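This part of the workshop introduces the protein records we will be handling. Getting from the letters to the C-alpha cells is the skill we practise here. The record below serves as our worked example for the rest of this section.

…
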Amino acid sequence: MFGKPLYIRQVAATLVFSLAIMSATICHAAETCDGRIVVHPKTHSRHLRNPGMGLIMYGVPDPPPDVADLFYITLVWHDVEPEEGRYVWDQPILKRAIAAAEKYDRKIAIRMVTSWQNYERPIPDYLVDQGVRLFPPNPKWQENKWEHFYEPEWWHPKYIEAYERLIRAYGKRFDGDRRIAWIDMRYYGWWNEGHRHGASVDWPESVDLRKYNIRMIDLHREAFKKTPLVIQTATDRDVPYPEGTAIDYGIEKGAWMRRDGFGPFLNEEEKELIRSHRMDSILVAENGGSLRDFMAGKIRKWWVKDSAPITVDEMFGQMFDCHVNYLPLGWGWSDYMALKEQRPDLVKKLTLRNGYRLIVTEASWPAAIDTTGATGKTGSKPGASSNIEAADSLEKLQDRPAGGNHLLISDFTVSTVWKNRGVGRLPFTRNPICFLLDEQGNEIARRVAKKFNVSRWIEGITYQVDFPFQLNENKIKPGKYSVAVGITAPESEHPDIAIGIEGGDKRLIYTLGQLTVR
C-alpha cells in the first residue's frame, strides 16, 4: 500500500546520494551522472490551513488570530426552541460565527447542549410544563460554581420525543453546510459531555443506558449524513468503559473523537482508547483548565491530593501523544493572548505539530527527454507494452493517444519521497498528483497516484510515490517544463491540501524543478 519497503528505499537513497557526491566535479549539483535530476525541496514553518485539522478558537473574535482555523460555538436548546416546534437557528453567536467564517475563510464547529451552566432551564419551557424534571448536581461536586446548573430527565418519553424532533430539524438546517467542519454530538451527561459524575439522581435500572446512547447516536447519524460528527470519549461513573455509554459504537460508525479534560482529567484508559483508534478516527481536544491557570501552576490532578502542578507543555504533550487533529487555543481570546505573550514558542509548536503536515523530502526525474518518437527506453508506440505501466498498476494512463497514428515521444518516471511531520493524519481520502507545467504554468500532463491513500500517512514513516508519464508528440514541444506535485481528492481535478514546502501557488500546486524536452 505504501510503496517500496522502507529499508529498500533507504538503501536506494544512500546509493543515489553516494553517486551524487562522487560525481560532484563532473555533474551539476542537482543532477546525478545517470542523467536524473535529484532535488530536496525546501520546507517552511508557516501555518497550514487544511481540511480535517486546525487550531480551535472558542467564541468569535473579529478579527480572529491568524493561526485560528475554526470557531467553536455552543447553542442551548432552550434558546433554539422558544416555542414547541418553532426553531430559531439564527442565534447571535451563530450569526457572528457564520459572518466571520465567510469573511476570514474559517470553519465553524457547533455543539447543541441540553445541560449548561447558568441556565435555570436549559431545555424548552414547554417540556418542563409537561413534566420533564431538571436535577441539580450534588453540591459537593459542584462546589457552588454556578447558581443554575441542571441536567434534564434524559429518560422521560416527552424529552426523548422532543429531542428527536430537534435533532432532525438541526440536521435539516446544517447538514452539508460547507462552513461547518463538524457537529459535536451532545446528548447525555453534564454539559452533555457523556458523563454524570456528581449526579444527584441515579440512572433508572429500567432504562438500558447503552441502548439509549446508541439511539441518540443513530439519531445524529440519520440527521447528519454529510457533515462529520464528533463523539465524547469521557468515562462515566459506575459504567463499563467505553461500551457502557456506547462510545465504541459511535467510533465504529465513523464518529470522530473528542475529549475535553486534557491535563488534569484524562485517564490512562481514555488515552488508550483514543490512541487505539488513530487509524479509523481523529481527535478533537480541549484543555482541562484555562491556559492562564496552567501557566500559573494552578492546575493539578483533581483526584490526587497534593499532586504537582501540570504545566501547559505537559497538557499539550498529552494531546500530541494522542495524535490530535483539532487543538484548542485555550478558552477564548484572553487565554490565547496569554499564551501568545508568555509562550510564543509554544504557539509555533502547535501550528507545526497539530494534525498532519505533509512534505516532499526528495524527488527525481530525467534531466531531459527527447522528442524523437523512438521506441524502447525513451519511447513506445501506442499499444506497445510499457515496463512502467506493467510495474505500476495505477489508473489508465491519461496521456495515451486515442488513435494509432500518434507516436509516444517518451515514457519516464517522476519519483517522490513524502513524510508527514504532524502528529495526526488527514481524515479524508486523498491522492498524490504530479504535474508537468509549461513556462506559463499551464498544465501539460498529470498523473494521479490512486493506489496511495494519503489519509493513511502517519508520522515516522517514509512513503515513496512514483508517477509514470507517457507523453505523445502532439502534446509537448521542445523547451523547459516544470515538474510539480500536489494532493487531490479522488473526484476532483484540483489539489486542495496545502503542504509544507516552498514553491506552492494559489492552486496548491508545488513546483519541484525543471525538465528539459529536446
Notes: The chain has two domains: 6-45+358-517, 54-353. The first helix runs from residue 6 to 22. Residues 6-45+358-517 form one domain. Residues 1-29, 373-406 have pLDDT under 50 and may be disordered.
